[in-house]
Amino acid sequence: MSNFWFGEGLRKGRKTERFPHAPPEEPPLWPSVLEGSTDTFCPTDAIKDGKWDSGKCISCRLCMPEFRPTGKQDTFLIKKTEPALKKSFYLYKLDTGACGACNIELGTIFDPQYDANRLNIFITSSPRHADAIVVMGIQTEGMKEALKNAYEAMPEPKLIISLGTCAISGGILGDSPMSRDEYHIEIAGCPPSPYTILEAIAKARGE
Amino acid sequence: MHYKFGEPAGRYIGPGGNYHVYSSTISDVPPEGFEELPVHKMAPGEFNFQYGPSTGGLVESAGLQFITPGEMINSVQVDPTYKTRKLKMKGLDIERAILTVERINGFHASSNTIAFILAVEEALGMEPDEEVQKARILQLELERIRSNFEVLKRMGEPAGFGVPVNQIGFLRERVSRIISKAAGHRFFFGVNSPGSALISNSGLNEKLSEIRKEFDRIFSGLLQSKIFLNRLQNSCITKGKFLTGPAARAAGLRYDAREDSDSLPYDETPFVPVVHEDGDIFSRMIVRGEEIFNSFDIISSLGTVRETPGIKVEKGTGEGSARVESPQGDIFYYVKVNNGTLEDVWYVTPGTLNVRAFMESMKGNLFPDFHFNWESFGIWISELGVEIQ
């Protein structure tokens, strides 16, 4: 059987796409950058005075047709970079109260289409080995201490990444576990697509 | 309301709200033998250790407390409450409540949302039309295919079985992209509302048949990989009666809401429950794999599925309930609507029975079996850790 799997690995050939060095091959419409200028109802106040805040948007489509998705995947904001982490970037994921969708999409960036490992991005099981903590979900009482302990256990330099609308602003479900000022990188979306996550994490190293 | 309050009748679905739900009734009487699992008393030489709530081996936050003399697991307790979310739903209008229901379990959003909406439609006296019901079956089966791929992928990870893990991960992502094209969102958010489903199957069957062909080859390969299978066979056996979903069907129980709930017209599809007898991790794996093929058959039998645009829902009053088969097992929703507003809502998640079965099945097995076993149940903590307010 070992020959079978070896042969299967070769038979399928290369499946990894060139993104982020080329445009995304199959970007989703929801979530993506929304375009519009007219004020309309938004259950999370992501649209105010005709302006759209990606960190509050939950892709519910209730703003249609005043606002429309463009398919553009760059719904992230990078406030601080760490070029020292270019060759090896270890992420520690922390689910403070997620619905599971962000958890899945973060895992997806390691699937063959995206293969985050080729960009020197890895997951670690311990915050002591982590360069960045990826916070997912709303604030919950039981995970407050875990978040604090994980952050304190990380060595310097360290980055704090918020993944998804719940972590950034609380979205539709509650409060965010940290204030927006405390995050170094905001990856917006409900949940953000793997394209968005991959590009944002790659750029967190100043690329 | 289709489900009546009364004495227990039919198989046990699980606890929800202040009640116990059976396949035919809602009761305040728990099933015989469903008392709390006995607490293990530490024996000399045993020690306990905490795993989680946040660690690399878990996709979500959960706390597990193992008791072991060193190798064999004599007891494990799962605490799903670390990330309990307090979700406001009572007093909301239906449109707003759907946004919350979608996010109870994002990976199984269509199962939760469709069960909730079917309950709402019953409460409001709405008769869903055939096109909408077909679109719901399409979503549930796409979600099942993707979820079962995820479970099979994760079951290969602790074995370090890189080639099939990556190839199944590749297929799972292809299904996510198909869902995105068909429904606009990779997790079916914003797709469903009473009397409507924004999804079509245009061009979908050709893409799915390619995935089926690829998966057929991978699954056949897995079933020939003796070292991997030896890891799964005769491990972590559970054959109790309080089972649901693939775990029940892997233990010889023909439990499936697609057969014994009339919320959706599965009798018009080639649905066949996949049942195996042994109740071990291997049986749970093979049920998941074979169900993927049946889901492909169901989808291809649906004919044309078109988007059915939203309709204006009259503000009504009433009670409703519905049960659908999620990839984890039965999901049941109860709603009480008063003049278009949710007065009461509660649900039964298959996670409750699955966590109980996981804890029972772990006893007497080794820690290296833990990850295979945990993943084989496909448990989602997000669905368990919810307080509806």
Q: Based on DSSP secondary structure assignment, what is the total number of beta strands of chain B?
A: 16
Query: Biggest sheet of chain B: strands, sense, closure?
Result: 4 strands, mixed
Give helix and strand order of chain A, one letter per element, not per position. Answer: HEEEEEEHEEHEHEH
Mean pLDDT of chain A: 95
Kindly state the number of beta strands of chain A.
10
CATH architecture label name of the domain at 76-203 in chain A: 3-Layer(aba) Sandwich
Which strands sit side by side, in order, in the main sheet of chain A? 5-10-9-8-6-7
Envelope shape of chain A: globular
3D structure, described in words:
The complex is a heterodimer of chains A (207) and B (389). With 207 residues, chain A is α/β, with parallel strands linked by helices. Chain A has a domain at 76-203: 3-Layer(aba) Sandwich (Rossmann fold). Chain A is built from five helices and ten strands, in the order H-E-E-E-E-E-E-H-E-E-H-E-H-E-H. Chain A has helices spanning 2-12, 101-108, 144-153, 165-169, 194-203; strands spanning 34-35, 47-48, 51-52, 68-69, 76-78, 89-97, 121-123, 132-137, 159-163, 185-187. Chain A has a six-stranded mixed β-sheet, sandwiched between helices. In chain A, strands 1-4 form a two-stranded antiparallel ribbon. Chain B has one domain (87-388): Cytochrome-c3 Hydrogenase, chain B (Orthogonal Bundle). In chain B, the strands form six sheets. In chain B, strands 1-4-3-2 form a four-stranded mixed β-sheet. Chain B has a three-stranded antiparallel β-sheet with strand order 5-6-8. In chain B, strand 10 and strand 11 (196-197) form a beta hairpin. In chain B, helix 3 runs antiparallel to helix 4 (162-183). Chain B is globular, with a radius of gyration of 20 Å. The model of chain B has no long low-confidence stretch (mean pLDDT 95). At the A-B interface, helix 1, strand 6 and helix 2 of A face strand 9, helix 1, helix 4 and helix 5 of B.
